[in-house]
Amino acid sequence: MIAADASVALLIVALGAWVVVARATFAAVTGFLAYGLLLTLVWVRLHGVDVALTEAAIGGGLTGALLIGAAARLRNTEAAARAERPGRLVRAVAALAALAVTAALAVCVLTLPVPAPSLAREVAANLAATEVGNPITGVLLAFRSMDTLLEAIVLLFALIGVWSVAPDGVWGGRPGPQHRLDPDGILAYIARVLPPIGIIVGMYVFWVGADHPGGKFQGATIIAAMWLLTVMAGLTDMPPISRRWLRIGLVAGPLAFIAIGLYGAVAAGAFLAYPAGFAKPLIVVIELALMPSLALVLALMLAGAPQRSDLR
Amino acid sequence: MNDATIFGLCAAVLVGLGVYGLIVNPQPLRKILAFNVVGSGVFLLLGAIARRGAGAGFGGDPVPQALLITGIVVAFSATALAVALLLRLHDATGSVTLSSDAPPPPAPAADVDAA
């Protein structure tokens, strides 16, 4: 297996180099997509199937789609940017800096302490109290639930940041361009056939996350992708960001999370603590509340800042 | 040489590649891409460390693995914010240069919110 691991590692390094040095930005972004898929394989090899699902859905999928869209819109700036390429001295210094960083990290990797510090035993000992079977879900929603709460709020802040770069004239309007529907096109066909299947897959990935690899982030990404597919095919349009249901939907999940955290402060003595015997139902409630908010926030983040005013 | 060491070294190389691209590429979108390569290298390093912490029936330490999921999602949101800023810069000025001594581009006539 070492030969297989080493060849995957070499392939990833080659793709990473391609992403950095390719002349055309579009080619670099395409390389980044392949790079993300290969990383997914590596996560499986490193026994992180939950991480692999997240990498495939968000690290490779959503980020890749975002960057491809940006590369397409910035295509006409490519030629001007090429003239700004730094001289040989800057490139040599950059190469030295990169080598130094790599060497320092490589030394760290080779001198990691033995035996490796690990919290696996503590997680295994306390997982039964949370009544979930997937240790990752246990960490995300019980042992380190503060991280997950803050993460959901970071996503909201990032979306506010994305929205706030909108020109004043279109504030509150619809994000992204209006896509024309080609009723006989293959995209419209796929956008009709795939979402029912995709929504079920997304719900399954979400539900199974309690006991097996999966969870709300991965499930929410799949559902967000289905929504974006219908938007790109022109079957639906992005809602104006000033809609009240949209704003409520965005904050409902984090607010439910905070409310349950406060309930824990009263009933179990600490913020985000769960009363004994109620851990599993409360975790399910948090995940159920968080998933629609996450699907909304991820899809809207990909759609970007508002571009069309909502005068209709 | 086990899988954690191989992918740990791979992560070290990826971070270096990303740092090089971050400095050398003049285009902001390429810098964002390079930054994502740095990020994935850091994630992979943490993943290799999680793999070394395998025990108690788990193939990897679940605590760093859960932190990785959080990290990947936050990296996406940072990338989305950076791309939104970049596209806005492009819409407002017609160019995406970060160079301070480039000639100022002509102001586009259609920009309604210039005031």
Give a verbal description of the structure.
In chain A, strands 1-2 form a two-stranded antiparallel sheet. The termini of chain A are far apart. Chain A has twelve helices and two strands; from the N terminus they run H-H-H-H-H-H-H-H-E-H-H-H-H-E. Chain A has 312 residues and is mostly helical. The relative contact order of chain A is 0.11. The model of chain A has no long low-confidence stretch (mean pLDDT 89). With 115 residues, chain B is mainly α. Chain B has one domain: Helix Hairpins. Chain B contains three helices and no strands. The longest helix of chain B has 32 residues. The radius of gyration of chain B is 20 Å and the shape is elongated. In chain B, 62% of the residues are buried. The interface between A and B is large, with 100 and 87 residues.
> Helix- and strand-based class of chain A?
mainly alpha
Helix fraction of chain A, binned, reads over 70%
Termini separation of chain A comes to 60 Å
Arithmetic mean pLDDT of chain A? 89
Query: Judging by the overall fold, what is the CATH architecture of chain B?
Result: Orthogonal Bundle
